[in-house]
Amino acid sequence: MTGLEIGLLSILALLLLIWAGMHVSVALGLVSLLAIWEVRGRWSVAAAAIAQAALDSIDSYVFGVVPLFVLMGYLVGVSDLGRDAFRLADRVVGRLRGGMGVATVGANAAFAAVTGISIASAAVFTKVAVPEMMRLGYLPRFAVGVVAGSSVLGMLIPPSLLLILYAVVAEQSVGDMFLAGIGPGLLMALVFGIYIVLLARFRPDRVQPLAAAQAAAAARRDRPGNVFAEGAPLVGLIALVLGGIYGGLFTPTEAGAVGAAGALLVAVARKRMDARGFWKVLVETGHVTASISLLIIAASLYSRMLALTGVPEAMGALFADAGLGPVGFLVVYVAIAVLLGTILDSSSILLILVPLALPVVDGFGMNLVWFGVVTVIAVEVGLLTPPLGLSVFVIRSTLDDPRITLGDVFAGALPFAMLMLLVILLISLMPAIAIAPVGW
């Protein structure tokens, strides 16, 4: 077989292995190792490629951003800052029709700024927002749909693990990717909020019946307390981490360390953390970091295998001969990412598609930072689409309510998946939304 044939067969084998349940890092590494061995005909060359991939991918100061932000995310979850974010957002926008839905989107955006993990947001706000919305008369399908849709903000608003992963694979600056994620993340939150307000205004039967809305408004007038003081730790932590990065005080890696220290202080001050709990958080952080490290090493090996077999160059020639141009390529790319999202998780899609697409993107002269933002949004649509829909499954497993089925969560999340595609269109028409803060 030719190198190109080996490369194409390896991609097909990779998809089948992941779909069959093999861990993505194991599948990437195994398929890449066998393909390199087949192309070169020597096992020693394939073994050396593994060692070089490990050395080039995670042996750097920049990679320290991964365990530090993972640690910060776990500490933020323990500190109960998600509940603070929701209560603060509810105070600000809760009086609007559909205001609790808008508050959930706003709280998810704030929570994303200190966690960077969509699944964490889905789990936290399923416990915090869904029961409160249902208590105030919001329809169950709407409540879980809002939580599912807004949870994807955790992988777009920095710090984001997917943005970090793309930066490593595409050899881009983590700081630039963080800057580029702000505008699209806020735009997506705004689009979600506008949709919720319009839906509550013109189709209240799908959000909150009028009688329930009036009863909720009366209950709100009697609600005591000042949650702005309680929200101060969250606001302070966001200002510390993101303000430090964008103000030039910290590198992203240093900001992760500062943020983790700040989240630890909040957890201790609120008596949410003891020695045993801290050890558990450290162990979980180690597990996640080890998993991400294996993913990145395997992705680096996969990229080398693709380059060796000539698949990326063949793809570039295919798109050039087809005459699709940058627009046609982007439409096909996003469509493939969304389709893969029905069977694979976000990290797997990113690690499979990006090495294939980068040579084509370079050939068209596209901005790689902007392309990274589009990629993250496209693969995040997969968190909301059946049959895999990871965020949907997290929400359903977290709920303790037999009235809400998995189909209800998918149906409630579908409009938000469509709105994400609209955001991709807006960013494609106005790339400055993403790349203007980077200065390109």
Automatic annotation (TrEMBL):
It holds the Pfam family DctM. The chain crosses the membrane at residues 6-37, 58-77, 109-130, 142-166, 178-200, 227-246, 252-269, 281-302, 322-342, 349-370, 376-395, 416-438. One of its GO terms (cellular component) is plasma membrane. The complex comprises the extracytoplasmic solute receptor protein and the two transmembrane proteins. Belongs to the TRAP transporter large permease family. Part of the tripartite ATP-independent periplasmic (TRAP) transport system. This is TRAP transporter large permease protein. It comes from Tistrella mobilis (strain KA081020-065).
